[in-house]
Amino acid sequence: MSDIGDSDISDSETSEEDEQLIIMQEARMKNQNYLEEVVPEYSNEVFFEHFRLSREVVNTIAERYEATPEFHRDSGPYGDIGALNQVLIYLWYIGHQTASFRDVGDRFNVTISTVHRIIRRLTYFLSNLSSEIILWPNDDGKRISEEHFSQKGFPNVIGAIDGCHIKIDKPQNDPDSYINRKGYYSIQMQAVCDHRRKILDVFIGYPGSVHDSRVFRNSPLQNSLDMKCGRYFLLGDSGYPLQNKLMTPFKDR
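^ Putative nuclease HARBI1, sequence as received from the core. Prediction below:
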């Protein structure tokens, strides 16, 4: 009886292991064809959910990337990795906060070193585009933004300013200064956005423990705000100082 019981347990464990192996193999087969067969079948809505940009914008980025010295056609187990697929790999990585290089490599069936090269190249490429993409609005742009903010009860406003924390690994130098109020390591990014949430100005680099008001005081925007806004204003939360061109909340007493 003991032998029979041991045999049943052994058979059960073997069966569970076989099922797990089948599941892993099916997942790997799916990932092998993810870019070639799965992604093209996504609806526009599902595509946006996964990659955070529309297909049109992604294709435009890929075309520009392919025409630059930063682009190199990497090779994977199933052939070359072209510009479009590299952009998709990059967008997946930056759009999923908890994704590691290994996670991305498994999903797209590429090596970790390939993922690292793609992330590095595309980060450099996109950084070089910032000067022609992140622009303060001209007079027409200000007027259009003002109309939209006015409809929401904020006349003469063309944008809003705020800070956000970009999570980083523990720095080697002065790590405590990078711990933000939520308890993780980060660097500060200050951004101004218009009514469409398009970034008009960005300033980045201060440690996570630094307050928004200090980041603002040390940013180039502090000294150029009057000139940039003209007769208009920006909105900011209570973390920012009230200024001629920067409106912050006040208590109705």
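The chain has ten helices and seven strands.
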